[in-house]
Design brief:
Elements lengths: L4 E4 H13 L5 E5 L3 H4 L2 H6 L4 E3 L4 H12 L4 E7 H7 L1 H9 L6 E5 L17 H6 L5 E3 L4 H12 L5 E4 L4 E3 L14 E4 L4 E5 L3 H13 L5 E5 L2 E3 L3 H11 L2 E8 L4 H12 L4 E6 L9 H7 L4 H14 L1
Parallel strand pairs: 2-3, 2-4, 4-5, 5-7, 6-7, 10-11, 10-13, 13-14
Antiparallel strand pairs: 1-8, 6-12, 9-11
Helix pairs in contact: 1-8, 4-6, 9-13, 10-11
């Protein structure tokens, strides 16, 4: 089954924060000279008086956002994930996370598929960094429907949030009946052979792989984890208990991301075999999306092969 194509998460974010800005005067957007790429320019066009062009000075941008949060604003900081997380990490840790200020960090172009911007711009260890930080909520939506609802949910959360956004258009996984809840995982497919936990737009790939595997007699219970921190530990344990065997899948290094979070939880609360799939301990490179997905083993075809081999080996 091939899912229908939808908007890029960055576009859904831009539209959602702009719509919320119509009724919530607390919302401001700070941009790191990338608005036409991250789609912060949608907010700029609608609310120019609450849009702040901070230039290529990410540490300062996060510091300004922290200051604005102390006087009642809800700042959304918009730039590439590599700049927000890696370049401005000290500002985030000291000025935002420690005092638990309600700054919302929209890390765009996250993951492997950054539009051939170059290997230095690829960021697929961002979740590991941000979820390890005290007070930092980490959210990785799967599609435009979930992104729109996640933006609404994090506005009123009294603390910092890292929202992971990707560049390419994303398949649509959820319909209009779906309801995102901060801190909750959701089962998107039932199956009894193995539980697969996935997050972000990678869940759409795993869903398509699961449908293909069903034709080979392998039935996957697929659990989407949009909030990696705080993790829905109850749902994780319950799903693991149902099948007794777990695979994690993510467009992120297998070190410290979703796979790490799941393994940590289950080793403590319900020990079962856990196999992590995703990007290995590597840096990426620039190239066409489909070629990168194949090379790094996270295309639909590669996911299908990987899960099949893991299940058969067991």
């Amino acid at each position: 089954m091939t899912l229908p194509q939808g908007k890029a998460l960055r576009v859904a974010w831009g539209e959602a924060v702009t719509e919320l800005g119509k009724t919530d005067p607390r919302i401001v957007v700070l941009d790191g000279d990338l608005g036409s790429s991250t789609r912060a320019d949608i907010f700029e066009a609608a609310h120019p008086d609450r849009f702040f062009q901070m230039g290529i000075a990410e540490q300062n941008m996060l510091g300004v956002a922290a200051g604005m949060a102390t006087v009642g604003f809800v700042p959304f900081v918009s730039t590439f994930a590599c700049f927000a997380v890696a370049r401005a990490l000290d500002s985030i840790r000291v000025l935002i996370a420690q005092p638990k200020l309600p700054v919302k960090i929209a890390g765009s172009y996250a993951g492997l598929l950054a539009g051939m911007t170059g290997k230095t711009h690829l960021m697929f260890d961002d979740v590991a960094i941000m979820r390890a930080m005290a007070n930092m909520v980490t959210v990785c939506p799967a599609d435009e429907v979930e992104t729109t609802q996640a933006v609404k949910a994090i506005v009123d959360y009294e603390g910092p949030v890292y929202l992971r956004l990707t560049r390419p258009s994303s398949p649509i996984l959820f319909d209009d009946t779906y309801r995102f809840e901060l801190g909750k995982a959701v089962t998107v497919r039932q199956g009894g052979d193995v539980t697969v936990f996935s997050t972000g737009i990678h869940t759409t790939r795993v869903f398509e792989a699961a449908e293909a595997l069903a034709a080979d007699g392998i039935e996957i219970k697929l659990v989407h984890v949009p909030t990696i921190k705080p993790l829905d530990e109850e749902a994780v344990v319950e799903a693991a208990r149902e099948t007794g065997f777990v695979i994690t899948a993510e467009e992120h290094t297998i070190i410290g991301g979703l796979g790490g979070a799941i393994a940590e939880t289950l080793s403590d609360k319900y020990p079962v075999p856990v196999k992590r799939t995703g990007l290995a301990d590597v840096f990426g490179e620039s190239g066409p999306n489909d070629d990168l997905l194949e090379k790094y083993g996270i295309s639909v075809a590669k996911i299908t092969e990987s899960i099949k081999s893991i299940v058969k080996a067991r």
